[in-house]
């Protein structure tokens, strides 16, 4: 019996020896996928949804993982900072950021800087912290271009209302300044009111309803984005003034393009949000590969009105 037990023990030792020396190798861990985070202002406005699509297309092309985050409450700065903090905790490779508040976002960017995570600033300029580049259209130039075109359609005279974006956002400030600059050469165009509607359609409808009560004889509305322009159109339509008041916006989103085609909206400006998202992720990839990137990347804009709206309808 002792011989049998000894033989079994020897056999077990031999099996253990062979397993340890040759046999199968321990499974290697899968290399960590490069993760880039895109932080948007919200996932309601078609501009940011279009930007998301562009970013996703770039991520697919370059083989990186893309996580898209946005505040549950639209344009909330505190939620954006928490999104940056969560991204830092996950040790992501890079952050592509569209700030809701140009100044308020600074502490979040500084936290990313301290963690050694590069930040690519897109669309709305951050006013502090270290960002690797700023990718956007020139909002001032785009708004100026729209204002100049509206001045011509008004035959260089009339009463107008300006609908402004979110107070404190650099994009809103640049758009407003560009609008005023575009109207400056036309002394017979009077700005009777300039008021924020926070880039939101529902807010713009309420604001416009009030303004139409105070200024029933206006000739045009210049909105800093299409969502506000579309809200203004709803109020104008309810007041039975469709076709009597010209309306402009910026972004050339799907609903605005249809409104131009239907004659309810006068013009918009394609700020190419898809391209901004695409180039944002593409630039992050280049940076991570050690390639040199420019400190400012400009995306060109295109005016959209009756003359070329068919091209945009065909894209949708």
Brief overview:
By secondary structure, this protein is α/β, with parallel strands linked by helices.
State the order of secondary-structure elements, H for helix, E for strand.
HEHEHEHEEHEHEHEHEHEHEEH
What would the CATH topology of the largest domain be? Rossmann fold
* CATH hierarchy, class of the largest domain: Alpha Beta
Whole-number total of structural domains: 2
Instruction: Output the structural class.
Output: alpha/beta
Strand order of the largest sheet: 2-1-3-4-5-11
Which key phrases capture this entry?
elongated, 17% strand, six-stranded parallel beta sheet, Rossmann fold, 316 residues, 11 helices, 12 strands, alpha/beta
Structure description:
Helices cover 46% and strands 17% of the residues. The protein has eleven helices and twelve strands. The model is unreliable at 4-26 (pLDDT under 50). Helix 3 packs parallel to helix 4 and helix 9 packs across helix 11. Strand 1 (35-39), helix 2 and strand 2 (65-69) form a beta-alpha-beta unit. The protein has a six-stranded parallel beta sheet, sandwiched between helices. With 316 residues, it is α/β, with parallel strands linked by helices. It has helices at residues 2-21, 46-62, 77-89, 106-114, 139-153, 170-183, 201-214, 226-238, 254-261, 273-288, 309-315; strands at residues 35-39, 65-69, 94-97, 119-122, 133-136, 158-164, 189-196, 220-223, 246-248, 268-270, 296-298, 302-304. It has two domains: 35-136 and 273-299, Response regulator (Rossmann fold, 3-Layer(aba) Sandwich), CATH 3.40.50.2300; 139-270, 3-Layer(aba) Sandwich (Rossmann fold).
């Amino acid at each position: 019996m002792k011989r049998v037990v000894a033989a079994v023990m020897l056999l077990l030792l031999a099996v253990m020896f062979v397993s340890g020396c040759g046999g199968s190798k321990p499974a290697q861990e899968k290399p960590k996928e490069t993760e880039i985070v895109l932080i948007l202002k919200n996932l309601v406005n078609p501009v940011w949804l279009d930007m998301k699509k562009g970013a996703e297309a770039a991520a697919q092309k370059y083989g990186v993982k893309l996580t898209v985050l946005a505040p549950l409450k639209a344009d909330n700065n505190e939620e954006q900072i928490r999104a940056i903090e969560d991204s830092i905790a996950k040790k992501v490779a890079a952050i592509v950021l569209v700030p809701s508040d140009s100044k308020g976002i600074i502490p979040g960017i500084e936290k990313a800087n301290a963690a050694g995570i590069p930040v690519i600033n897109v669309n709305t300029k951050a006013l502090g912290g270290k960002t690797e580049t700023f990718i956007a259209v020139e909002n001032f130039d785009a708004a100026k271009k729209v204002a100049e075109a509206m001045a011509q359609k008004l035959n260089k005279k009339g009463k107008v209302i300006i609908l402004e974006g979110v107070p404190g956002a650099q994009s809103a400030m640049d758009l407003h300044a560009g609008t005023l600059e575009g109207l400056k050469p036309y002394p017979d165009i009077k700005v009777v009111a300039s008021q924020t509607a926070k880039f939101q359609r529902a807010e713009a409808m309420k604001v416009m309803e009030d303004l139409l009560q105070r200024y029933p004889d206006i000739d045009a509305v210049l909105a800093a984005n299409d969502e506000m322009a579309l809200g203004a159109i709803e109020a104008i339509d309810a007041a039975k003034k469709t076709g009597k008041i010209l309306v402009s916006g910026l972004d050339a989103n799907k609903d605005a393009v249809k409104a131009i085609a239907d004659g309810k909206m006068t013009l918009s400006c394609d700020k190419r949000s898809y391209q901004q998202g695409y180039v944002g992720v593409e630039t992050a990839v280049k940076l991570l590969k050690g390639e040199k990137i420019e400190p400012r990347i400009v995306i060109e804009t295109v005016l959209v009105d009756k003359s070329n709206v068919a091209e945009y309808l065909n894209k949708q």
